[in-house]
Amino acid sequence: MTISAALSPPICCRPPLCHDDAVPVKIIGLTGGIGMGKSTAAAAFRRAGIPVFDADAAVHKVQAKGGRAIRPIEAAFPGTVKNGAVDRNALRAAVIGKPEAIKTLEHILHPMVWEEEARFLAAARRAGKRAAVLDIPLFFETGRERKVHKIVVVSAPQPVQIHRVRKRGRMSDSDIRAIIARQMPDREKRRRADVVIRTGLSRYLTNRQMRRLILELLE
Fold it and tell me: Which of 117, 162, 164, 206 has its CA 20 to 30 A from that of 15?
């Protein structure tokens, strides 16, 4: 399990299209539960030349050998750092099903990931990009609506979701269900979304929906 970058402030209005004197960038929030197809959607954005910030990848970066999260994680969860990097299986075992432990971990990781996100958006503005995507798994759960102009949710039936995660071979069924239980129900995410991408039928149909969305975003 990775803990995504996220804030928990009160939800407020969407941001203005222009930030200071920088080039205006339309910020897209991409989210969905584990196994719902965020990677497929993110790949479609990248193929279209739209940069994507991957919150989970940012977490992996700070947990890797030499990463800034190594020392505070080892201090908070002794025995979870091995050979200079966070052992993700050991860390998962230390926090899963333990709300206070998860909160402690998030307090360590979030500020580091926010900095990575800020650098990503600044780079997109400097490059003159018309749009940029924030791929954040726990987007709604942590009040990220205020950071974006449009919210895209990927969705699939739960049996498909569980099957996809099970195929990865990295989690037990109990771990998968514990992660799903912690996330906002799919129906509520769909209710809050500006756009819902249905990923449960085929990759072809998913990509067709993504092409239509990207054309609308860039028109």
Answer: 206
214: left (phi over 0), alpha (psi -120 to 50) or beta: alpha
Pairing of strands 85-86, 81-82: antiparallel
Structural domains for the chain: 18-51+130-219 (3.40.50.300), 57-126 (no CATH)
Q: Which residues pair with 86 in a beta bridge?
A: 81
* HEC assignment per residue over the chain: CCCCCCCCCCCCCCCCCCCCCCCCCEEEEEECCCCCCHHHHHHHHHHCCCCEEEHHHHHHHHHCCCCCCHHHHHHHCCCCEECCEECHHHHHHHHCCCHHHHHHHHHHHHHHHHHHHHHHHHHHHHCCCCEEEEECCCCCCCCHHHHCCEEEEEECCHHHHHHHHHHHCCCCHHHHHHHHHHCCCHHHHHHHCCEEEECCCCHHHHHHHHHHHHHHHHC
pLDDT of residue 23: 58
Cα–Cα distance for residue pair 51/124, rounded to 1 Å: 7
What is the C-alpha to C-alpha distance for residues 183 and 32, in angstroms, rounded to an integer? Answer: 9
Q: Which of 2-16, 31-45, 46-60 has the lowest mean pLDDT?
A: 2-16
pLDDT tens for each residue of 157-171: 999 999 999 988 778
What is the pLDDT confidence band of residue 22, given thresholds at 50, 70 and 90? low
